[in-house]
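Q: May I have one protein plus its fold?
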Amino acid sequence: MTDDKALDVERVGTNGSVSDEVVGRATERVYDLDERTARFGKMVIDFAKKVPFGPLTNRLIDQLIGAGTSVGANYCEADDAVSTKDFKHRISYCKTEARESKSFIRMIVRAVPELRESAKPVWQEAKELHLIFAKIYLNR
C-alpha cells in the first residue's frame, strides 16, 4: 500500500462518512465536501501528469493544478469561516476555481486531443463541484 493510499484509508469524513477509498468502491459518490474536494485535487494532479510538457501546454498545466488544488484549500477556509459573510466569500472562491478548472481542462484537450477521454471524468467532477458551490453560495 502506498503512503498516499495509507492516508486515504485513515481518512474519515468530518461528518462521519467514510470515503469510497476506505470501503474500496471507486464509483461510489463521496458526499463529504472536504473529502470530495481533496479527491478532486488528486484527480487534477493525476490528469496533469498525463499532459506532455511543451510551450503550448506548460502554462495550462500550471493553471489547472493551481485552480484544481485550490478548490479544496478554499473549502477548508470556508469551513473555518468566522461569519456568514466570510463563508460566502470563501465559497465564491471554490466556485470560481472549479469553473476555471473546467476551462483549463477544455483548453488542454484542445491542445492534446488524445487526452479527451481521460479528461472527461475530471471535467465532470469540476462541473459538479461548480454547481454545488454555486448552489451553496446562492442559499447563504
About this structure: The two ends are 41 Å apart (CA to CA). The chain is about 75% helix and 0% strand.
